[in-house]
Design a protein that fits this description.
The chain is about 60% helix and about 0% strand. The two termini are about 15 Å apart. The longest helix has 14 residues. It has about 60 residues and is an all-alpha fold.
């Protein structure tokens, strides 16, 4: 199950650094990262890992 979740996350959430390249600051806490992704945006490693960790925690993974 964990492998399927990871694959789905990688396939559906874009890795993007546009805000960084434009000099826009973005927060990296998990709640902000989840909200960003739910709005259809992607993010870089901190956003993606934080959001994925929040998902796994909500699903009961430690």
């Amino acid at each position: 199950m964990l492998r399927a979740l990871h694959r789905a996350h990688v396939e559906r959430v874009a890795y993007e650094t546009l805000d960084n390249q434009l000099g826009r600051r973005t927060g990296i806490d998990a709640a902000e990262s989840v909200a960003r992704i739910l709005r259809g945006r992607g993010g870089y490693c901190f956003h993606l890992n934080g959001a994925f960790a929040a998902l796994l925690t909500a699903l009961g993974y430690e």
